[in-house]
Amino acid sequence: MSSLVVFALGEERYGVPIEKVREILPTMRVTSVPGTPPYFEGFLNVRGELISLINLRKFVGMEPLEDLSMARILILSSTEGVTQGVLVDEVSNIIEIPWQELQPMEEGRDNRGIPKEFLKGLLLHGSEVVVVLDVDSLLSGGKGEIQEEQVLQ
Predict the structure, then answer these.
(1) Are 28 and 44 within 8 A, CB to CB?
(2) The whole model's pTM is what?
(3) What are residue 142's phi and psi, to 5 degrees?
(4) Nearest Cα to 39, choosing from 30, 26, 47?
(5) Which of 57, 71, 75, 74 lies closest to 113, judged by CA?
């Protein structure tokens, strides 16, 4: 058994292994950087540590949220020690899952959404389908920052 932090992007539910989540923060002040991809929000100052922040909605081609009151920042850490913030719509819960129930991913719908190389698989939790992200792959795309050419549009 393992635990997943489950979050929402629109109507879809995603999960990341809890051991990859360093912390969950409310939205905070971000210092933007000119000339960066649209999904790169900028840098956060988290207790004196600068952490880059990507907007996962923008990364997958969704419109940005108007109301950020429920939005959260997941500070993720990879096995290699890369740390990055990811802005999501909301964190809904933490679930216990048996890894043997993880089902492989089929090809994405019309090449939209999170690229397949960043996904571990699918889980059925109650009546919800949870897409499990591969944090190590997500954060290894160019020194901890997802590269623009990896965005499927």
Answers:
(1) yes
(2) 0.84
(3) 95, 65
(4) 30
(5) 57
Domain spans, the chain: 2-144
Q: Which amino acid is at 125?
A: H
CATH code for the part of the protein at 2-144: 2.40.50.180
Mean pLDDT in runs of 10 for the chain (153 residues)? 92 94 96 93 95 93 91 95 95 91 69 76 90 90 42 33
**Model pLDDT for residues 126-140, shown as the tens digit of each residue:** 889 999 999 998 888
Residue carrying the six token digits 């939790």 = 125
Distances (CA, A) of 91 to 58, 79, 95, 120, 153: 17, 22, 12, 19, 25
Structure tokens at 15: 């999960």
